[in-house]
Amino acid sequence: MNYAAPWWLPGGNLQTIWPALVARRGFGPRPRYRRERWPTPDGDFVDLDWLENSAPTPVTSCTARGLAGRAWSGAALDGRPLLVLFHGLEGSSRSHYAEAFADFAREHDMAYVVPHFRGCSGALNPGPRAYHSGDHEEIGWILARLRERQRGPLLAVGVSMGGNALLRWAGEHGEQAARFADAVASVCSPVDLAAGSRATGHGFNRWSYTRMFLRSMKPKALGKLAQYPGLFDGPRLRAARDLYQFDDIFTAPVHGFRDADDYYARASAKPWLHRIRIPALVLNALNDPFVPASSLPRPHEAGPCVTLWQPAEGGHVGFTAGTVPGHVRKMPDEVGNWLIQAAARPRST
């Protein structure tokens, strides 16, 4: 990806904050979504937002069997490519990058859907869990159900945390991933979670981004504690001041990890990149304040199916282009077109 930030938008922090708050998200009308709720095998639910006019058409004859062996009445998708976006930490279908990808999908006549990680759709989930950066089982379950309904190519992109989980899924499944996705991409993902945690825990990052995340993450976690008393140490969580502490107290133990260090080691996608066997794009700006450049994968760590794009600028999920106030369509254009072209290439055997 050839990208240079506009002269009026210098530095990784400004290139991160401005696009999220000010820049235009698309060239057409703001996307309108239709929500679909899926019951999960563990008695919870996942909410998916479908771009209007790209949602599946209900048909009574379309019945499939999910991964847990449960029959479900679904809906069929037409033969257009389906673009699936897995959002980042505390993101949703209304995140700036999600709306920009929706605009790309509309222009290219693609079906488009944003599955929400549990707790991010605006509704309190009933189960005793939330989501995490290595949630590849959830990714796999969602992609498998979508593939059962999808007749055309299925392309998936994950942003930040969602990208790490998507790459982790692709590495975990190796050759079998091709049954469910034709190509995948990650955008600004901290594929080394320990390095990302350290980067957000100091200086300006701790004062700004960490405080912003904890402002929404703490109440959600405490809501889980109200549902399930004793699930974790509430007083310690209230006192947490950075993401490492939050992950050590809540994310790790609630999702089956020993502690934050164990979570970061087992959930990071970087050690799994060499096992990916479907076309995969890994895009990271070298000036991303969340993801240290020193932690990014090198070509020998990625494997033959992985393409690395590491432009010097862009910030964290920024890549603003144009004149003031700018727009954020350049990154979805580049990533989306790469996915389309990668899925169209014949696979080597």
* Count of extended strands: 10
**What name goes with the CATH superfamily of the largest domain?**
Alpha/Beta hydrolase fold, catalytic domain
Strand count, sense and barrel status of the largest sheet are: 8 strands, mixed
How many angstroms does the end-to-end distance come to? 28 Å
Poorly predicted regions are 59-74
Q: Give the % helix.
A: 25-40%
- In CATH, the topology of the largest domain is named Rossmann fold
Level-2 CATH architecture of the largest domain:
3-Layer(aba) Sandwich
Radius of gyration: 19 Å
Domain count? 2
* Arithmetic mean pLDDT: 93
The helix-strand sequence is HEEEEEHEHEHEHHHHHEHEH
Shape, principal axes of CA atoms: globular
**Proportion in β-strands:** 15-25%
Number of helices: 11
What is the C-level CATH assignment of the largest domain?
Alpha Beta
Q: Order of strands side by side in the largest beta sheet?
A: 1-2-6-5-7-8-9-10
Structural class: alpha/beta
